[in-house]
Specification:
It contains three helices and no strands. It is mainly α. It is elongated, with a radius of gyration of 31 Å. The termini are far apart.
Length: 74
Amino acid sequence: MSAIGYPAPRGKNFALSAVADVKHEHLFFERQQSLAMREMEWEGRVRPLTPWSTLIVRGLGMAVMAGIFLAFVI
Protein backbone atom coordinates (compact mmCIF):
# COMPACT_ATOMS: atom_id res chain seq x y z
CA MET A 1 0.00 0.00 0.00
CA SER A 2 1.31 3.43 -0.85
CA ALA A 3 1.56 6.43 1.45
CA ILE A 4 -1.73 7.91 0.25
CA GLY A 5 -3.74 4.72 0.55
CA TYR A 6 -3.75 3.40 -3.02
CA PRO A 7 -2.58 -0.16 -3.43
CA ALA A 8 0.55 -0.41 -5.57
CA PRO A 9 0.17 -2.59 -8.67
CA ARG A 10 2.17 -5.79 -8.50
CA GLY A 11 5.38 -5.94 -10.47
CA LYS A 12 5.46 -2.26 -11.37
CA ASN A 13 7.07 0.76 -9.80
CA PHE A 14 3.92 2.76 -9.18
CA ALA A 15 4.10 6.44 -8.33
CA LEU A 16 1.55 9.22 -8.35
CA SER A 17 2.93 12.56 -9.36
CA ALA A 18 1.63 16.04 -9.91
CA VAL A 19 2.98 16.93 -13.32
CA ALA A 20 1.47 19.96 -14.96
CA ASP A 21 2.11 21.39 -18.36
CA VAL A 22 3.50 24.76 -17.30
CA LYS A 23 4.73 27.06 -20.01
CA HIS A 24 6.65 30.29 -19.59
CA GLU A 25 3.82 32.39 -21.06
CA HIS A 26 1.40 31.04 -18.42
CA LEU A 27 3.39 32.83 -15.72
CA PHE A 28 2.68 36.36 -16.95
CA PHE A 29 -0.45 38.48 -17.24
CA GLU A 30 -1.61 39.13 -20.76
CA ARG A 31 -1.02 42.89 -20.60
CA GLN A 32 2.64 42.33 -19.70
CA GLN A 33 3.17 40.23 -22.81
CA SER A 34 1.20 42.09 -25.43
CA LEU A 35 1.95 45.56 -26.75
CA ALA A 36 -1.57 45.65 -28.18
CA MET A 37 -3.04 45.31 -24.68
CA ARG A 38 -0.99 48.30 -23.49
CA GLU A 39 -2.68 50.46 -26.10
CA MET A 40 -6.21 49.62 -24.92
CA GLU A 41 -8.31 52.51 -23.62
CA TRP A 42 -8.40 51.32 -19.99
CA GLU A 43 -4.61 51.27 -19.72
CA GLY A 44 -4.24 55.08 -19.81
CA ARG A 45 -7.05 56.13 -17.46
CA VAL A 46 -5.03 56.50 -14.27
CA ARG A 47 -1.72 58.33 -14.17
CA PRO A 48 1.05 56.65 -12.16
CA LEU A 49 1.75 57.97 -8.67
CA THR A 50 4.44 60.60 -8.22
CA PRO A 51 7.51 59.29 -6.36
CA TRP A 52 8.34 60.69 -2.92
CA SER A 53 11.69 62.02 -4.12
CA THR A 54 9.97 64.18 -6.73
CA LEU A 55 7.51 65.52 -4.16
CA ILE A 56 10.34 66.36 -1.74
CA VAL A 57 12.37 68.16 -4.43
CA ARG A 58 9.30 70.15 -5.48
CA GLY A 59 8.57 71.08 -1.87
CA LEU A 60 12.15 72.16 -1.25
CA GLY A 61 12.10 74.23 -4.45
CA MET A 62 8.91 75.98 -3.35
CA ALA A 63 10.41 76.64 0.11
CA VAL A 64 13.54 78.17 -1.46
CA MET A 65 11.43 80.34 -3.77
CA ALA A 66 9.28 81.47 -0.83
CA GLY A 67 12.43 82.25 1.19
CA ILE A 68 13.88 84.35 -1.63
CA PHE A 69 10.57 86.18 -2.09
CA LEU A 70 10.29 86.89 1.65
CA ALA A 71 13.91 88.09 1.77
CA PHE A 72 13.12 90.76 -0.82
CA VAL A 73 9.78 91.75 0.73
CA ILE A 74 10.98 92.06 4.32
